[in-house]
Write a structure and sequence with these properties.
alpha/beta; Alpha-D-Glucose-1,6-Bisphosphate, Chain A, domain 3; 5-stranded antiparallel sheet; globular
Length: 450
């Protein structure tokens, strides 16, 4: 059996095992390629709290300086705060030194384009081509810029989020929030909640580096937060993933509300403010259609991926979009998934409605969502998707991203993974058994005898 790759280059950037594949030489070269792609100008660079962050950052700074860019060190910051800072400062781009939910031996360069947006697939491909060509316009010593520092990213971000909600209504409720933030989110989120007049209690796991690449803010990983909510009688529990992109919610009884709950609550509150279109990726729960379509708003589906959802939002004039489990883009605040904006809007919803988060969740249908990843050689992915398309011929098919078969009460999506040779299967139905039955139909075709 082949060993998993220790270096991955994709639309989100380059990531690898530090000291094995992610070497200072590779980081410097990729940063030089990015500086060449962006042009000689200011590039913001920030890190998460991994032990290797400083080494990777310094190597990236060297690469940026070598091609005439002006690196601006913003320190330890969540990715949404860095992306907002790039946009507000008019920087040429940004680099987030973070391997997201990868284990501590991994790190990465996540590239941010001008305007504070994730790179589109074609832009990432162009950057990768530059790296492989290795032809960078090196500058001589007299032309080299100096490293600068700017520690205002979190302050800017908190101000932007607070400006998007009714702060006084939230402060009047004096919520107690139990928090389990990962990495830099554990530093920044308490500042936002304090600005909103909340009392904050933190879980013992808050701020820790994830032990494995599967460690995210999933229901199975929320035991400490659930216990904290019950012990402190908190009004709500919030868990952020390592990128501070997605938000998981625990209600006042200490029960997780499911991956789709945060996005649903944000979308519904946003539309209560005024009608408008909503964009969601093809893997997002149909509860988004229930809360948006039921109010007469159009729902547009996009390919999976933050950049894809944002692009459709801009095309359709949507102010809110759903990308990934619990990931919400609130356009007036940020051009990326932002768990801080999601948290503030959910608190506003509770304050305006005078209701608990459990009561708000009960006002929308519940569905069972099941996912499974099927490892598959790259050469077999396209034929496998054709088999799935044949399996569901005669059904309503959405081919926006892979193959999605839809019925009035359930759906199944099969799409190629963006990060590894695999097919990602997702199914949603009224019950776990019905969702798993859909997955099984595909697995029987793709893995006969398994």
């Amino acid at each position: 059996m082949s060993q998993p790759l220790s270096l991955k280059i994709g639309p989100s950037g380059v990531r690898g095992v530090v000291g094995e594949s992610l070497t200072p030489q590779l980081v410097t070269s990729f940063a030089a390629a990015f500086g060449t792609y962006c042009g000689a100008g200011p590039i913001l660079i920030g890190t998460d709290t991994r032990p290797s962050g400083e080494m990777v950052k310094q190597a990236a700074i060297a690469g940026l300086l070598s091609v005439g860019c002006t690196p601006i060190d913003v320190g330890v910051v969540p990715r949404p705060a860095l992306m907002l800072h790039v946009r507000e400062a008019g920087a040429f781009g940004g680099i987030s030194v973070s391997a997201s939910h990868g284990s501590p031996d991994w790190n990465a360069l996540q590239f941010i384009g001008s305007g504070g947006r994730a790179l589109r697939a074609n832009e990432a491909a162009e950057l990768t081509d530059l790296y492989h060509q290795g032809l960078y316009p090196r500058v001589r010593a007299p032309e080299m810029s100096e490293l600068r520092a700017d520690a205002t990213s979190v302050v800017r971000h908190v101000a932007a989020v607070a400006a998007a909600v009714d702060v006084e209504r939230i402060r009047a409720r004096k919520f107690t929030v139990a928090l389990d933030g990962r990495g830099p989110a554990a530093i920044a989120m308490p500042r936002l909640l304090a600005a909103l007049g909340c009392d904050v209690v933190t879980a013992e796991t808050s701020g820790r580096v994830p032990p494995s690449s599967d460690s995210q803010a999933a229901p199975s990983d929320l035991a400490a937060l659930c216990a904290l909510v019950r012990r402190e009688r908190a009004d709500i529990g919030m868990a952020q993933d390592w990128d501070a992109a997605a938000l998981a919610i625990v209600d006042e009884t200490g029960s997780p509300l499911g991956a789709e709950a945060a996005a649903m609550l944000v979308v519904r509150r946003w539309l209560e403010r005024g009608a408008g279109p909503v964009v969601a990726d093809v893997a997002a729960s149909r509860v988004i259609d229930d809360v948006a379509g039921g109010a007469g708003n159009s729902v547009y589906r996009a390919r999976v991926g933050e950049a894809n959802v944002l692009e459709v939002m801009l095309e359709r004039g949507a102010g809110v979009g759903v990308a990934g489990d619990g990931g919400v883009i609130v356009l007036p605040v940020n051009h990326c998934r932002d768990s801080f904006a999601a948290a503030a809007i959910i608190l506003e919803a509770m304050a305006v409605a005078g209701a608990s988060v459990a009561e708000l969740r009960a006002r929308a249908p519940r569905y069972a969502l099941r996912s499974q990843r099927l490892l598959c050689p790259a050469r077999d992915i396209a034929p496998s998707l054709r088999l799935i398309r044949t399996l569901f011929r005669g059904e309503h098919l959405d081919l926006t991203d892979g193959v999605k078969a839809e019925w009035p009460d359930r759906w199944l999506l099969a799409r190629p993974s963006a990060t590894e040779p695999a097919i990602q299967l997702t199914a949603e139905a009224a019950t776990d058994a019905e969702a798993q039955a859909l997955l099984n139909r595909v697995l029987e075709v793709l893995s006969p005898g398994a």
